[in-house]
Amino acid sequence: MKTIAIVNQKGGCGKTTISINLASALAELGNKTLLVDMDPQSHCAVGLAVPEEQIEQSIYDVLISSCNGESLKLTETLWQINENLDLAPSSIDLSAFEQQMNGMSEKENALMNVLDQVKDQFDYTIIDCPPAVGLLTFNALRAADEVVVPVETGYFALHGLSKQLETLNILCQRFNQKIDVRVLASMYDIRTKMAREILAELRNHFADKMFSNAINFNTKIKEAASFGQPICEYAPSSKGKRDFELLAKSIVEQDQQDQNKQLVNSLSDQLSSLSTSADDLALAVNDFEKDPETIEVEEELKKIDEEISKYISGSPEQLLGDLIDINVENLDIIEDEAQQDLPTTEDKLTDYYGVNQINKAVYFVTLYPKADLVQIAGDFNNWVPEETGLEKAGKSGIWQTKLKLSPGKYRYRLVVDGKWQQDPYNEKVEMNPYGDFNSIVEVN
Ligand SMILES: Nc1ncnc2c1ncn2[C@@H]1O[C@H](COP(=O)(O)OP(=O)(O)OP(=O)(O)O)[C@@H](O)[C@H]1O
Ligand SMILES: [Mg+2]
């Protein structure tokens, strides 16, 4: 289970709107999702049409029960919103939580302990925080793997933001906890010059600590809340729904990439450490008679080889096999071009994502497991994506193409199932007039 806290002590910057709609979008993508309301204002219940007067037990009761060693389970207090989305509602009692917890040793870990009970039942937990830095927000931070800080792209947006991030940093240090903190532009109104300037400033300042897509100001989002519905139900074809869908997809995709990277790196680390041990042992045994230690290491190597073959042949871990395939395919394509530039098998497979120049050819390699069509549009094809499609490597989610480009600087964007986006694996970017990022490649 991945837990994401939506935090900003600034009131009205879109925390609850983002919590409700991100949770709904994740649920719509098929993820079992839990929305936890840690704000005594109970706005999540209002925004999802859960009648407040019918809420008998809230997250407050579960937290208190957990701290007192009592047996109230979180699952007994959940409200099912749809097949994949549950709400842990809050209540006004939560405003007394800090006072009541005074002196309790586990007071900052209460939510973390409670969520631990349901970690196998949900893929994602989204926590809506109150507009204050107090015990409730501490609890959310302790429970979180990731923090999203919504920033309204209005006049007071940047005011106090650095202070807010510094506070988060200090809290993480105090808890000795590593949390990913990312900034999300909210209520972005592209029509106003000030919003465009503020977004550019945020992107300049926070770079990769910022989500590439913003949540635009959209009146349908406001209306949806007043009808007690998430935007994906209230206005499924609205821009607001698309923004949250993109946000949810980028979070899921990032998780998959992190997991794949971890898996590939841990297997390749195991392989290289075992190969080194095997080599050392082989050298030590001059007459090549195998001693028991060598045999043991070789057997472990064989096991890891088998593990890798398993991933290559079978779903759902097909992806890892495909990562290995692409390495081999790349080798085939460029064999005649530059022997000395060939990637070696020791290189990390994930290093090939993004854009790489090998001699005169530029390789674009990216990962979109769920896409049906990946194209590229840029200066080099007059921004016409239909001109240049990427090829899918086998059944994998890896897409690649090779272009011969003359020396110079080129801007481009990827077009995935018709949606324009920056290349997630290329850090070189430049803002375009629409407030989005173009990816940059410089060919020598
Ligand atoms: N993208 C958006 N487009 C239009 N209106 C929005 C958008 N995001 C939020 N709003 C509106 O702005 C107001 C404040 O949003 P919201 O309640 O989500 O902020 P908040 O940070 O949770 O506030 P608080 O700090 O009081 O908890 C609400 O009326 C909401 O409907
Ligand atoms: Mg709120």
Account of the 3D structure:
This protein has helices at 15-28, 43-47, 59-67, 97-100, 110-116, 135-143, 161-174, 193-206, 219-226, 231-234, 239-284, 292-313, 318-334, and strands at residues 2-6, 33-37, 79-82, 85-88, 124-128, 146-152, 180-186, 354-358, 361-367, 374-378, 391-392, 398-404, 408-416, 419-421, 429-431, 437-443. With 444 residues, it is α/β, with parallel strands linked by helices. It folds into 3 domains: 2-252, 3-Layer(aba) Sandwich (Rossmann fold), CATH 3.40.50.300; 259-312; 321-443, Sandwich (Immunoglobulin-like), CATH 2.60.40.10. The protein is globular. The structure holds adenosine-5'-triphosphate (ATP) and magnesium ion. Residues 11-17, 39, 43, 131, 186-187, 215, 217-218, 221-222, 225 line the site of adenosine-5'-triphosphate.
Write out key terms for the chains shown.
16 strands, binds magnesium ion, 444 residues, seven-stranded mixed sheet, binds adenosine-5'-triphosphate, Rossmann fold, 19% strand
